Amino acid sequence: MKAAEVRHILDTIGDLFPDAHCELNHSNAFELTIAVLLSAQCTDATVNKVTEDLFQKYKTPLDYISVPIEELESDIRRIGLYRNKAKHIQSLCSILIEQYGGEVPQAHDLLVTLPGVGRKTANVVVSNAFGVPAIAVDTHVERVAKRLALAGWKDSVLEVEKKLMKAVPRDEWTLTHHRLIFFGRYHCKAQNPKCQVCPLLDVCREGKKRMKTAVIRKAKSHT
Predict the structure, then answer these.
(1) Does residue 202 carry a catalytic annotation?
(2) For 32-43, what is each residue's pLDDT tens digit?
(3) Options 1.10.10.10, 1.10.340.30, 2.40.70.10, 1.10.730.10; which CATH number does 1-192 get?
(4) Cα 96 to chain centroid, rounded
(5) 138 tagged catalytic
């Protein structure tokens, strides 16, 4: 895709969601790490409801490992996969205490070695907590990138990330990540995207296909 086409997409999405931001509530890097870990296969809204009380009770890594695993499970049981996540949290907190003085490491390659922290989580943490440009590819970012031909249909999550990093100016990586999430979450939804009112319909292969199908169905219904 040509640079001018990428610029058009970025500017258009930016006009739609100029104030896009991380919607996970947190006040420091440690809380953000816990919140992103909890958000796997779970909505940010649900995570925020749980962490509202969780972050009042648990302030430090030591707090999380000072309670029985069953107690932590109970505190996050509204979250999907809560048992596994509780294990990851306690293991992660033990490592932070033993190896990093209770602090979340700032280096991406160290973050991804922590239990429950994958590449996406590490990208979210370094970009939002430490100001390092990064593009975290979640389900929304992946869907939008592929629909707008910023990535290939069969590309892996890592391939999508690399293509976005190459196409988007580095100083816009973090902002673009947030805007793509907002665009995918509130406009270009998985099941009912707003193709009929989308300002990017002219460059969206998925939108064109959906609109063409809609026209055919409408025509058939009138015959």
Answers:
(1) no
(2) 999 999 998 899
(3) 1.10.340.30
(4) 23
(5) yes
